[in-house]
Design brief:
17 helices, 10 strands, binds iron/sulfur cluster, two-stranded antiparallel ribbon, globular, alpha/beta, 468 residues
Length: 468
């Protein structure tokens, strides 16, 4: 077992700019500054699907606050304390800021320190849950054991019932993964890169097998736990909010088609709740990494999220959206429009007769509007004004639908013409995609905290944590 009284961190030897071969005390505030910042590259931190109330003596509630609805403008969840347990990683993944060969400040929290921060922030209503990831400290087992101890303290000693999402460290003992699974609401094991070959090239200490093994264990654990719960009412819940994963996009040459095929396979074979896509940010210099002078591929990331949505909620298959001849999305169009203009033979769709799943495939018609159309047309035939009231985005849908046999306007039935008009319609893109760059500025716990004449970012941090 790890010594919980350990209060010192050892700065990694040989890292220029740090105190070589010396131990020094680092305050919790210093560690928080380093480890909250280091966690910002992990995008897989949404929460959902948990409905658990605390007991009479507990604290926190995984359902009441709706924590899954709190996101920053860039889509990142802001209501969780999102930190690394440690960035003192012994691995050397080429794309990662925390790789062992980088010269960056290193820190490791003790489990008690995380609890202290967590409960302090929770009591002040700054956060509603915890997202805990980590670099590999010493080895996967040691790291996973620290994570398990943190969860044990939070749940069993501090009686924290709020949402917790932790990383499963690939290569860790299955017993530790299982232990964490009974404490956490969600677990994730990052796939990192879309193919095994890319993983070997950029993360030589990782392997696809080591990543998929805990993923399969968690999946099996969730299924058998559900069965047990039917028989034994008070069985503790295992990863009740399911598992997710994350892939880096643009660091390796995989096409969009390959990426969404991997996602589809993960949803089908591992029952994942979410696959997150993280546009590669060029942080490290390495001959195996792309330079990306135009910045992180944010628009591509956005299109992949849209395509992922089509896979999960609109009944599309990866092989329908793309193929070997056309392996990448047209980034000027959202993937559904892109698919529709290449399948004009399936349109126009008659709004008053088409079944629900056909309606879902029409650009401009979402899940809600398709459901409303199916309900409303039971009473009378719908026209274009009705569709507008229902919420259909007519500026996209008008090329693909008829109401009682009539199109909204006479249009030229031609792929180029429709594509040009759809591009001209414009689209509301997330701010960072419009800006063409990704800053990865994580919403800080300290953004709205005003201190008197701070002389640097650490001052706000110190003042706040000093109140804990
Ligand atoms: S295991 Fe790889 S990706 Fe994770 S923190 Fe270490 S170097 Fe970074």
């Amino acid at each position: 077992m790890v010594d919980l009284t350990e209060k010192r961190i050892l700065l990694s030897p040989g890292r220029a700019g740090l105190l070589e071969h010396k131990e020094r005390r680092m305050s919790v505030q210093d560690k928080l500054g380093i480890l909250a910042d280091a966690a910002k590259y992990d995008v897989a931190c949404t929460s959902s699907g948990v409905d658990r109330k605390n007991g009479k003596s507990g604290m926190g509630n995984a359902s009441a606050c709706g924590i899954c609805h709190s996101f920053a403008g860039d889509g990142r969840c802001i209501s969780l304390l999102k930190i690394l347990l440690s960035n003192d990683c012994v691995f050397d993944c080429k794309y990662c800021i925390n790789r062992v060969s980088n010269d960056v400040p290193r820190a490791t929290f003790t489990p008690e320190e995380i609890c202290e921060l967590m409960m302090g922030f929770y009591r002040r209503n700054y956060i509603e849950g915890l997202f805990l990831s980590s670099g590999v400290v010493k080895n996967p087992d040691y790291t996973m054991e620290l994570i398990c101890q943190t969860l044990h303290l939070l749940r069993d000693i501090h009686h924290f019932y709020g949402y917790i999402h932790v990383k499963a460290i690939p290569g860790a003992d299955p017993v530790l993964i299982e232990r964490a699974g009974y404490y956490a609401d969600r677990m994730s094991c990052n796939l990192e890169l879309p193919t095994a070959g890319s993983l070997t090239k950029l993360a030589p200490q990782k392997s696809r097998k080591k990543i998929l093994t805990p993923m399969r264990q968690i999946q099996n654990g969730i299924v058998s736990n559900k069965n047990e719960m039917v028989i034994y009412k008070h069985t503790p819940r295992f990863v009740p909010a399911g598992q997710s994963t994350q892939m880096i996009i643009g660091a390796t040459p995989e096409t969009d088609y390959e990426i969404i095929q991997v996602s589809e396979s993960l949803y089908d074979r591992f029952s994942l709740k979410r696959v997150f896509y993280s546009a590669y940010i060029s942080i490290n210099q390495d001959a195996d990494l792309p330079a990306l002078p135009q910045g992180p591929p944010m628009l591509r990331e956005h299109r992949l999220y849209q395509a992922d949505w089509l896979l999960r909620f609109y009944g599309f298959k990866a092989a329908e959206l793309l193929d070997d001849q056309r392996p990448n999305f047209n980034t000027l169009l959202d993937p559904k429009c892109d698919w529709a203009v290449r399948h004009l033979e399936t349109f126009p769709v008659e709004i008053n007769r088409a079944d629900y799943y056909t309606l879902l495939r029409v650009p401009g018609i979402g899940v809600n509007s398709a459901q409303r159309i199916c309900k409303a047309r039971k009473f009378s035939n719908l026209d274009f004004n009705d569709l507008k009231k229902i919420g259909v985005v007519l500026k996209r849908a008008l090329y693909f639908i008829t109401c009682s046999g009539r199109m909204m306007y006479p249009i030229r039935w031609n792929e180029d013409y429709i594509t040009r008009n759809l591009v001209d319609v414009g689209e509301r893109l997330p701010a960072e995609v419009r800006a063409g760059q990704m800053t990865y500025k994580q919403l800080s716990l300290f953004d709205d905290f005003h201190v008197t004449a701070p002389s640097g970012p650490a001052d706000g941090l110190m003042a706040l944590t000093g109140q804990l």
